[in-house]
Amino acid sequence: MSKTIVIGSDHGGFNLKQTLIDTLEGWGYTVKDEGPHSPESCDYPVFAAKVVKSVREEGTLGVLVCGSGQGMAMTANRFSGIRAALCTNEFHARMGRAHNNANVLCMGERVTGVGLATDILKVFLETEFEGDRHKRRVDLIDSIEK
Ligand code: RB5
Question: Peptide bond preceding 36: is omega within 30 degrees of 0, i.e. cis?
Fold first, then answer.
């Protein structure tokens, strides 16, 4: 997995996005910031689409932040090949990666504080997909979609 992480938000997730960019860079990741680049009101589907397209093209992991995390997750999961996990704790993040092979982490700035969001992000990035029976189930998601 590449060390580049793609990230985006809307206005509701802008502050957490900026903080997580600094955190990721501090951990040695290259961050591709798909915006927005100011905290003005904007529409989350626009930025979710930009991030998931980059995730698919670059085969890397993505992070999406809005107020609740829900609009980002709903939008991201409309794109084939994207498995977006809305996480409010480390267990969600660990299982999302280990069992569901999630490739996009969604969080809500109005739900999750910076400290917990940082821990969730760390677990998400450091947990590997376990494959095996979980691969069969994840493959079923794709086959059902077709
Ligand atoms: C914006 O007010 C808010 O609706 C958005 O950030 C997000 O929570 C949507 O799911």
Answer: yes
